[in-house]
Amino acid sequence: MQLAILLAVVCALAHGESAAGPVGGVPWRTALVLMGTIVAPLAAAIGSRRLVRGLAEADSVSAADCERTWTRIEGVTLALWLAVVAATMYLLAWPRVVRSDFGLGGWPLVDELVILLPVVVPLLLLWTVMAQLQWSFQASQAHALGDEAPRYQPWRFVGQCARQHLGLILLPALAVIGAHELVVKFWPAASDGRTALWLFGPLLLAMLVGLPLLLKRIWRTSPLPAGELRETLIGICGEQRVGVRDILVWHTGGQMANAAVAGIVRGCRYVFLTDGLLTRLSSDEVEAVLRHEVGHLTGRHMLLRMLMLTLPLAVWMAATSVVPGLGERLETGLAGLGIPEAIQTSLVLPAVLAAYAILVVGRYSKWLEHEADLAAATNADGSIDRSAAESLARALVKIVGRGPSSRLREWLHPPITERLAVLALAVADPNAAIRFRSRLSRVAWAMGTIYAGAAIALLVAGG
């Protein structure tokens, strides 16, 4: 779902930046936009009606059956939602209506917020439908056990989904856009590309350093209670010489079984373990999951992901410095092919970036996940620990399940079948892990070489 949300937000904001001039027909366009916000949630409600009715009539319905059915409904609903968002932005020209017809283009951040309403409102309604489905399942289970049904509190579920799926995408993006628009409003020279880079580069770095603090507040968290498990987990961090500020429980109402580590600075680094993960896994399995997260830190995976993500920007900056006017030539060439400049900015560029994120960054992130898995199963002497590998494999099965998963839903993580296969191969053939790490090392060196070449090109062009 996060990938779909990211694509929708990027396209909406990119098209908003290219919007120019009024389009007219504001009443009917606005009416259609409002009608579009209920299309996907209504489809989800209709699609899940039979499942909700079955939950109300059955003594017990398995969680696996319920999840499989909802996954199918969710996939269709998200595709429908993306289609409606695309029609809203490109066919109904909603960004132009907001910025020109409504006259909000001169209000910093206000126009972006209104442009994003057709993206966000359907998600909130969709999560309300999911809350009803979740409550129906819990009530069915309680009825089967003879217990009292839980209270229906959809706002808690919707708030949790909003924090999880929207917080990390919208808040940083809106903070950067708002800061940029405010600065440009009072200092027009900041709109220059190089000036903006020097001005907002430190801001982006500060946001990256402060990301764990943002996560701590977006997600409902509390310190992992004192006890044997906490001491063991802190000991693992100490063994790997990884400093963390705290180990936090991420409260999701038991709906998520996941773990994460965030922070590039020791004093601002946290480990997050969801309540669902702590409930489902045994102590040795939780330790294996933590070793996986620590593997991300010792492997400097956050930095490597960021470098891979920004690699096209470095190459583009170097290319435009070496070949003056390259951007204008490219725009002219695409215009000659019948692609207007507005479409280049609002559709072609986001499509290219999305393809790079999915195909390149997604694949590289999956390799890093495999490396973190191997790190969790590796002893201090570099040998593979069969027991640790088996503990991690059991944890992964309990968290993800053995069935196939959607590649778009798990675009940054390999399928569970691949992860189990890599672990099994490493146990059977320790040299396989060595070969895998060697391949990743070559990729890192190649990426470093490209960055070095780009830096040299910028220095030479600047000199």
SSE string, helix = H, strand = E? HHHHHHHHEHEEEHHHHHHHH
Give the N-terminus to C-terminus distance in angstroms: 46 Å
pLDDT < 50 stretches: none
Which structural class is indicated by helix and strand composition?
Answer: mainly alpha
The general outline is globular
What's the tally of helices? Answer: 17
Mean pLDDT, to the nearest integer, reads: 83
What's the oligomerization state? single chain
Give me the side-by-side strand order of the main sheet: 1-2-4-3
The helix content is over 70%
- Fraction of residues in β-strands: under 5%
In total, how many beta strands?
4
Report on the biggest sheet.
4 strands, mixed
Rg over CA atoms, rounded to whole Å, is 24 Å
Task: Please characterize this protein's 3D structure.
- The chain has 463 residues and is mainly alpha-helical.
- Among the domains are: 2-152; 301-462, no CATH class.
- 74% of the residues lie in helices and 4% in strands.
- The chain has 17 helices and 4 strands.
- The chain has helices spanning 2-18, 26-36, 39-57, 63-91, 94-101, 110-145, 154-186, 193-218, 228-239, 275-280, 283-298, 301-322, 326-336, 341-376, 386-400, 416-428, 430-462; strands spanning 221-223, 246-250, 259-262, 270-274.
- A 4-stranded mixed beta sheet has the order 1-2-4-3, sandwiched between helices.
- α1 crosses α5 (94-101), α6 (110-145) runs antiparallel to α7 (154-186) and α12 runs antiparallel to α14.
- The longest helix has 36 residues, at 110-145.
- The protein is globular and about 65 Å long.
- The model has no long low-confidence stretch (mean pLDDT 83).
